[in-house]
Every structure is written in C-alpha cells, then in structure tokens.
C-alpha cells in the first residue's frame, strides 16, 4: 500500500527563466510554420546567453518563415519583458542556423501508398492524472506554476513594476490520507529591478499574491518562507545564466510526481511522438481518473521510428483502480487511435497553439476555444465507461 501521510516538493520557473525564453522562441517558430503550413515539420532548438540568441535545428515548410525567425525571436523576448543592458529585445544578436529536415528521418515519418505515417522517433512517453486537485494534477507543481503566473500578471500589467521576468518557485506540500492539506515550505526567487530591495522587501511584494493563489488554510504559522534567500537578484535571464530549449521537462510535466520518458516538447511538431504522444497519454490518464475508474493513473506509450502503432500500452493505477488495470489498457485501445496521425487528428494538433505551452506547464491548463490544450478535455469519459 502506498504512503498516505508524507511531504512532496515540486518547482516551477517563470517565462523569463533562460530555458523558458528558449522554449518560447522554439515554439513561436513552430507556430509560425504551422500557421503557414499545417503539415510543416519542425525540430527547433534555441540557445540564449548574454546579448545572443541562436536558433537552429531542422525544418520543412514554407521558406518565407525562415526569413522571419529574427523578428519572431525579438518579439518573444520583448513580450517576456527583457530590456536590460546585456539582454534587450531590440539590441541582442539573433543567429538563424535552421536547415532542412533529414531525408532519412522524413522517409520514416511520411505516409505513402504502401505505409501509414510512422512515429517521428523511437521512445516512451508518460501521462499522469490524480484526483487531488480539480485539474487532476499533482498539487505541488500546479500551485508552483500558479504562483509564477500570478506574479507575471502583476509585473506585466504594471501593478508590481519592481519585479523582473526571471523567477523560480518551489512548494513543499504536506499530505494526509494521500491528499494535500498544507504547505510546509515556500521558496520564491525573483529578479527585481531595484538594486536596493532586500529579501524582506521582495517578500513584502510577493507574499500577498502567493497567499491569494494557494488554497485557504494551506499556509500556517509553521510554514517556512525562503524569498530570494541568496539576497540580491538583479541580473536575470540569459545574461545571468545561459538557456537552452528542453531543459525543464519535469517542470513542463508533473513536477516529479510521475515518470517522464526523457523527450522534451518545445520546438517539435506533432508528428514527433515525444510531444504528441505525451499529450495523448495525459489526455487518456486524465479521462480515466475523470471517469472515476481510479484515484490516480500513470499511462505509458512506446513507439518505434517509422512504425505507426504503439509498441505497448501500460496502465498503473497504484492500487486505486475500480477495475483491473489490464481492462483499462484494453479500453484505451478501443476509444482512441494512438497512431501518430490518429493522435494528431483526435486532438487537432496541427494548429499553431504551442507558444502558449512554453511556460507554466503543458498540463493542468483549461482547454482553449481555438484548440489549445485540447489534451486537457475530458470528453472520453463516456466512451471509456462504455468500453468497460
């Protein structure tokens, strides 16, 4: 039997974190290609450091998008809010070294008269859902994201002009009877534009918003606070620490509460199962829990490059299932086509909806009217129940 009383910690990083700046640019370039050509292929990687952004990788799509990469990168940095001496959206150097997709990879992915579209790579992907928040997400990572999203809102709307774009949050959540009941520690490090602000000053700015975001009663007199524990945090973003696409995969997913297959998401078009199958796995796991079939659900999918059907489907409900896990596995195959094309069609993934996923988590977000976060829908509940 799993532990019922414990503490668990997860972190998040803001849209101005160096790695998230890179994720944002990579996904913005992807969105530009998908806007011009829904079947475009992208594997876009971004590197950022002092006064420099490098965009590279492989693409296949309209050539005019390539000419807009510098403009796209600058617009992302501007929207995030970087206007500091050594990382300013208007003055930084942008190098575009994107090139065409490998024909060897393309032949494995493209469909033809004799074969269906194959997976864009081998690999394994995990999805997870748990009935401890309304979003069916682990509480520590969900609320770590929520804190930083709220601070970004008040920074960008001018309410708190002293805050800078770069920030990290970390929550240690206390569980009783396998449900979150409180926060034992809060860690928040945020860039500030006034060099004279102390850690106490910064806490005075951010604490009301943290209390606003967390559930009532979760913060107590025993909660430990660590706000800017190293002191001054003025130099932020890629000027303070280099950034790279795909380095925050645990922040992007479940905060360490569930396994991760190893592949990053940002910059990858949905033929790449690192991204699309991870979204499908979350979608299925969430619908299993939403259907009342389990309190928690971990789902694994595995693929081989050039092969359309998944090699395996694995379910683990950690002893919380209302029916045997093997029966849920069989039902999943009945209710959704898990080939790469089937996933893309079912979740309508060939749309420019990825830039918005680059910060504050790919999961636990409300579905958007234009198809963004379609994998957060719970529209398979009835089909799963019927299949069982």
Helix content: 25-40%
Instruction: Give the integer mean of the pLDDT values.
Output: 94
Distance between the termini: 25 Å
Number of helices: 11
Poorly predicted runs are none
Q: Total number of β-strand segments?
A: 13
Write the element-wise H/E pattern from the N-terminal end onward.
EHEEHHEEEHEHEEHEEHHEEHHH
Main beta sheet: strand number and arrangement? Answer: 4 strands, mixed
Category from helices, strands and their pairing: alpha+beta
Label the overall shape: flat
Report the C-alpha radius of gyration, rounded.
Answer: 21 Å
Largest sheet strand order: 1-8-9-10
The proportion of residues in beta strands is: 15-25%
Query: Assembly type of the shown chains?
Result: single chain
Short description:
This protein is an alpha+beta fold and 388 residues long. The chain has 11 helices and 13 strands.
């Amino acid at each position: 039997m799993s532990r019922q009383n414990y503490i668990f910690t997860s972190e998040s990083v803001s849209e101005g974190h160096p790695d998230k700046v890179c994720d944002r640019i990579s996904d913005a370039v992807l969105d530009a290609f998908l806007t011009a050509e829904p079947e475009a292929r992208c594997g876009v990687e971004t590197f950022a450091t002092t006064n420099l952004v490098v965009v590279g990788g492989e693409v296949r799509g309209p050539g005019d998008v390539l000419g807009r990469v510098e403009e796209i990168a600058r617009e992302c940095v501007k929207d995030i809010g970087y206007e500091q001496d050594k990382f300013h959206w208007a003055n930084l150097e942008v190098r575009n070294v994107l090139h065409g997709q490998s024909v060897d990879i393309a032949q494995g992915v493209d469909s033809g008269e004799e074969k269906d579209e194959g997976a864009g790579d081998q690999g394994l992907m995990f999805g997870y859902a748990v009935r401890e928040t309304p979003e069916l997400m682990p509480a520590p990572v969900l609320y770590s994201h929520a804190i930083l999203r709220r601070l970004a809102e008040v920074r960008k709307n001018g309410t708190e002009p002293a805050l800078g774009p770069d920030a990290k949050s970390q929550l240690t959540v206390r569980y009783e009877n396998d449900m979150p009941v409180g926060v034992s520690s809060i860690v928040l490090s945020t860039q500030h534009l006034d060099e004279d602000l102390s850690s106490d000053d910064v806490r005075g700015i951010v604490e009301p918003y943290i209390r606003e975001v967390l559930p009532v009663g979760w913060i107590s007199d025993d909660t430990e606070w660590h706000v800017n524990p190293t002191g001054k945090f003025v130099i932020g973003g890629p000027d303070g620490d280099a950034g790279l696409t795909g380095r925050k995969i645990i922040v992007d997913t479940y905060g360490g509460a569930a396994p991760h297959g190893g592949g990053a998401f940002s910059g990858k078009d949905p033929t790449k199962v690192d991204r699309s199958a991870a979204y499908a796995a979350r979608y299925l796991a969430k619908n299993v829990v939403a259907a009342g079939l389990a309190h928690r659900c971990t789902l694994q999918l595995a693929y081989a490059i050039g092969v359309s059907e998944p090699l395996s489907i694995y379910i683990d409900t950690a002893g919380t299932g209302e029916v045997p896990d093997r029966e849920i596995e069989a039902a999943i195959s009945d209710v959704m086509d898990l080939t790469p094309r089937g996933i893309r069609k079912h979740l309508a993934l060939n749309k420019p909806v990825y830039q918005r996923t680059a910060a504050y988590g790919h999961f636990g977000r409300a579905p958007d009217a234009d198809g963004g976060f379609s994998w957060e829908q719970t529209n398979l509940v009835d089909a799963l129940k019927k299949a069982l």
